[in-house]
Amino acid sequence: MTFNTNLFSLAFLSQLVIFAVAIGLGWLIKLFLWRPFEALKKRLRTPLAGQVLVILDKLLWPLIVGGLNWLTVRLIMQPLGWPHDFLAHSAVLIIGLWLGYQFIHACLELNLSAAAARVWSRQILLPLILLFVFLSTVGLQERVLNFRLTPPSFEQDVSVGSLFLGLGVMVIFFFLARLAWQFMEDIFLPQAEASPALTHAISTLIGYTIIFIGALLGLSVIGLDFATLTVIAGGLSIGLGFGLQQIVSNFVSGFIIMFEQSIGPGDVINLGGKVGVVHTIGVRRTVVRTAENQEVTIPNSLFLSDIVTNLSRDTPLTQLSIKVGVSYEANPREVEQVLLEAAQHPSILHDPQPTVEFADFGKSLVFILAAWTNDPTRLGEIASDVRYRIWDGMKQRQIQITVG
User: Fold this and answer.
1) Alpha-carbon span 363 to 344, nearest angstrom
2) In what order do the strands lie in the sheet with 268-271?
3) Is 66 within 8 Å of 99 (Cβ atoms)?
């Protein structure tokens, strides 16, 4: 878009002043709306609502300026026949680029650290926007945007403009997928009383479906037709045969795990003797946080090939079993009393009640204490505490502990 007006004409300068006034007035209006906007942020505490409000907060100023500019042109400039070339064209372009910058900057802040978002916004995005404004000013934007990137022999016509537009479509669908994912996982499915595992599975499937659709549309906008995409898919299939089998296996295993609902976020599992809480289930790997607060990343295929014990499926109740051997000189009833007293631990439940089983006669009298806890992540710690209690109780009653 070129400036058709003389840069030094009174008409242009007057429009420039009007646009500057709209920017200043828009800032004042946004400042006036700050308090009710912050109050709304505090009332809507869901992560999804918070992210939408962050984006809206970034867009509010250019949106207000755009509205004031539109009202000025429609209600004042056009009816009075005053020149409005700059306000109707160039100002609209500037506001559009401003909105785009603010939107992408907000999305970067939601997905990256503040420092990384600042680098991408100021050192990459802002120079590109300023370059586009400069090209628009000198009338070269159409020539640059229509510049063909593919050779003439290539059937698909990929230009600079189509490349940026296609990438923009992909980015928009990526953030739409993220919003839909969080809406389903944090709001809709929990309110529909879906289980955590099913909630995560459906949310993940919807999110990746939107991303896949966005990728196809983006590639189509860039200029790659479905025949070309088929060739690319064929090349990828060859690559799968040469070293991506494990990635595909983990990808498929992730969806199987989520839809089987054998494990889900929040479940306490035992895999290979390691107990931990499932934090997230991705399409490639599952993150488990152990009792030592260590974050362990496990490939999804291991959950299908190894034995996994879910300690909290349907209920967090987990049984604690401690085997004790005592001398034949001990009174079995007294041993039972010691074991039941040792089970009076703050983390041991009274319902179901702890029980003592006189298990066997061997080299010693064998007893098994069975108790229940609803904190399976501390199972080892609780068992250790109970064993200390058993030792103290046996010593107090002079009962000799032996190897069974």
Assistant:
1) 28
2) 295-299, 285-290, 274-281, 268-271, 308-310
3) yes
Whether domain 254-310 has CATH 2.30.30.60: the reply is yes
Strands (E), 259-354: 268-271, 274-281, 285-290, 295-299, 308-310, 318-326
| Spatial distance between the Cα atoms of 115 and 377, rounded to a whole number of angstroms | 36
Q: How far apart are CA 30 and CA 26, in angstroms?
A: 6
Q: What are phi and psi of 242, to 5 degrees?
A: -110, 5
The 10 Å Cβ neighbour count of residue 58 is 19
249 φ, ψ (degrees, to nearest 5): -60, -45
Residue 154 DSSP symbol: S
- Structure tokens that stand for 209 in this block: 């479906």
CATH pick for 160-242 out of 1.10.3470, 1.10.287, 2.20.25, 1.25.40: 1.10.287
Give me the pLDDT at residue 289, please.
Answer: 82
pTM of the prediction? 0.58
Angle at Cα 13 formed by Cα 11 and Cα 16, nearest 5°? Answer: 110
Q: Which residues pair with 322 in a beta bridge?
A: 369
The position carrying tokens 């295929």 is 301
318-396 CATH, one of 3.40.720.10, 3.30.450.150, 3.40.50.720, 3.30.70.100: 3.30.70.100
CA pair distance 96, 379, nearest whole angstrom: 58
Give the separation between CA 105 and CA 99, rounded to whole angstroms: 10
Q: For residue 365, what are the β-bridge partners?
A: 326, 361
Token pair, residue 4, equals 């058709």
Segment 358-402, tens digit of pLDDT: 988 988 999 999 998 888 778 888 889 999 999 999 999 999 988
Q: What angle do CA 280, 282, 287 make, to 5 degrees?
A: 40
What are the structural domain ranges in the chain?
Answer: 10-145, 160-242, 254-310, 318-396
Percent of residues in the chain assigned helix, strand, coil, to nearest 5: 60, 15, 25
> Does residue 46 carry a pLDDT above 70?
no
